[in-house]
Amino acid sequence: MELTGSEILMECLLREGVDVMFGYPGGAILPTYDAMTKYPQIHHVLVRHEQGASHMADGYARATGKVGVAIATSGPGATNLVTGMATAMMDSSPIVCITGQVPRAAIGSDAFQETDVTGVSLPVTKHNFLVMDVEELAWTVREAFHIARSGRPGPVLIDIPKDVQIAGTEFVYPEGEIVLPGYQPRTTANEDELDAAGRLINEAQRPIILAGHGILMSGATDELLHLVERSGVPVALTLLGKGALPENHPLSLGMMGMHGTATSNHSIQEADLLIALGMRFDDRVTGNLATYSQHSRKIHVDIDPSEINKNVPVDVGIAGDLRTVITQLLPRIERQQRVDWLARIRDWQEDDDERDILHQDTGDRLLGAQVINDLWLHTGGDAVTVTDVGQHQMLEAQYYPHQRPSTLITSGGLGTMGFGFPAAIGAKFALPDEEVWAIVGDGGFQMTMCELATAVQEKTNVNIAILNNAFLGMVRQWQEFFYEERYHATPMFNPDFCLFADAYGVPNMRVTRREQVEESVAFARSVQGPVLIEYVIEKEDIVYPMVPAGADLHAMIRRPKPGERESA
Amino acid sequence: MSDETPMEQKVTLVTLVDNRPGVLNRIASLFRRRNFNIDSLTVGRTHRPHVSRMTIVVDARLANVNIIAANLRKLVNVIEVRVVSDEPHVSRDLALIKVRTDDPESRNMVTEICERYPGRIVDMGVKVAIVEVTAHEEQVEAMIEEFRPIGIVEMVRTGVVAMGRGIRIQDTQYEPPQMRAGTRDNGVQKNIL
Fold this sequence. Notes:
With 568 residues, chain A is an alpha/beta fold. Helices cover 37% and strands 16% of the residues of chain A. Chain A folds into three domains: 169 residues, Rossmann fold; 158 residues, 3-Layer(aba) Sandwich (Rossmann fold), CATH 3.40.50.1220; 169 residues, Rossmann fold. In chain A, helix 7 links the parallel strand 6 and strand 7. In chain B, 26% of the residues lie in helices and 36% in strands. In chain B, the strands form two sheets. In chain B, strands 5, 6, 7, 8 and 9 form a five-stranded antiparallel beta sheet that branches. Chain B has a four-stranded antiparallel beta sheet with strand order 2-3-1-4, covered by helices on one side.
């Protein structure tokens, strides 16, 4: 069958199971947009800015583990995808970005809307392709999806010159096995590694599991639960690891790191064994490496061998798939209670509880923590939440416990403001039957709020919760602690978000008192299509605890207990 | 760098890569963004048309060589990475040195140096000669030092190429998938540069 390059692309996308893609047309990708009309099985979502397309593809991917697809034209269309690719790269999210390129003969001539996008995207993609021959297109698409979703997942870009999209050739789908000699991710551990890890776990007195995104990506939540219950080892979660273990589990200590629970951080510092599973010792979870968990042996399991011994030297490093490795490890693990260690941890937890803002009298002020807690309460703790970046994100991590995997979607590694709202739209496409909330701040929302038009056009049933403190709250917090309260460039002029929603015909509500939060959830649930709720919260609130950047993990700035004076 | 910086620690990696456009750029980009230090890098074809071979000498003081190798292996176009400086190996550097020979004394000295080193005069002009030397890097450097007082006019070095000793063969069965599928390859050699 003779097909054009664009048709071959669409045929291959169909065979990869693609049902939706997020994009924006333009000259160099028009042949493919024209071919889309013959493939109604693949729904195209017209975004308002290509960055939104990349975050939607990312949100879609994180919600399901399926590969998300974004498509854009050459030049500015392609460069607008870069933030989304960098975000997906840092958080190992499988997306494929397809870009048009100027015709082959024009490449290198500074043609209209020409950018060397394979060059630009090189450091922020797992791999990328420039397809210079229509005969290579089908294999390239197969390889791109394979690379994106396997091993340590990540973004892959396919750049296709316009004349390659137009060129015709006889199309036979390449059914053969993908052979990439330079790409063979290791998945299983060897016996020696497993024996060594098992021995360390059985002998440890004060062990702690550090569970990260890898548990979710590998689908190892059941295996982790078995490991935890057999070994009696408590679990601290990374931000992206939330959902790896149900957070109401008695052995869950909550998040670790800069804004993690003091219990997690103290446990890590006093542990005699760290069992790091699918996490990468990011500076936001370790603090000062020189004083990080100095008295512990360390086991590190990660699919990516280059992560092992990168930041923290380990005693046992296992490069492998977590589901496979934990399954291999389980028979070596002895059943234990660890009474003394857990009692010590319980003391820290009681102290945490006492300092919790929810247990303190805060008068009439509406606080971000209260909004998140009440959203959790009234959504039954079972919504899919997609956050932006900043104080509201950390409050979500602290006050919205997740029981199921992949129900929190957030930009961890890159910390991309503007991610939350478009990623929530993408997540809703992936999970049409789930209740999806975009939880965003007033700053980040304004970076990508143009996508409200996309949500309206697509009738996407996504609930937008804006925690509006009229500040870039997290930056303001740093200015308060470390820059002598010089609030430069952090107070925000904001539009009237409800009027803004009105302009798009989007139902909306403003919440200023805590009693209204319950009503706002009911209201959001009653609306089909997008709905916007603005929560007007305390302007100068602080997320506690906080480990200052580069400080020792145990040197947290704590919220004072009731009756204590504030001390920073 | 302070006095505490350890002595230079050179490590030699041999890397087999797909012979495709842009691969050198991927390797160079990796070293730059990971802040790894390249001492020298040579690229050339192998006996297999689709495989190129790089010899990369790195300064492993700041970055652990295993981390560098693991990062190289993550590149899809990198087929194999071997730290040959950890094993018995042969390494060679080639230099062309244009040296002053405009009087009998300098001509004699150049000839004499070439006899003591694996060097030879490949071009003798009226005022200058070109000497070629192929040897271990340290020997090449020693020879250059001997030429310096005579007067080096111009010089070029290839950088180190290396090969492990013994029968372990690095590139055995690699054929790119497009070849297998019979949809590509017109037999034209593409240059990865």
